[in-house]
Amino acid sequence: MTGALAPTKPLTALDRCDRCGAQAYIRATLPVGGELLFCAHHGRQHIAALREKGADIQDESSRLNETPATAREDER
């Protein structure tokens, strides 16, 4: 079966890593159906093998580098 994958929704704070329970930043959608969620740490450990198996990877780990505006900056 071929075709485009349905768009995936962004990961939220409610999405948890299947290995350790931390906040998930990586979603691996498996070609046979289903998905696995990983924190950035466990995602880095498993992402290469998952890609080799044909998984579609949604990696939002770059969000870890974002910094919220501090209250002082907002008051200026």
Structure characterization notes:
Residues 11-64 form the DUF7455 domain. This is DUF7455 domain-containing protein. Residues 52-63 have a biased composition (Basic and acidic residues). With 76 residues, the protein is of the alpha+beta class. It has a domain at 12-63. The protein is 24% helix and 16% strand. A hairpin with a 5-residue loop joins strand 1 (26-29) and strand 2. The model has no long low-confidence stretch (mean pLDDT 86).
Class from secondary-structure proportions:
alpha+beta
Helical residues, percent: 10-25%
Question: Biggest sheet: strands, sense, closure?
Answer: 3 strands, antiparallel
Low-confidence stretches: none
Element pattern in H and E: EEHEH
Q: What secondary-structure arrangement, pairings included, does this model have?
A:
Blueprint: E1 26-29, E2 35-38, H1 40-52, E3 56-59, H2 71-75
Antiparallel strand pairs: 1-2, 1-3
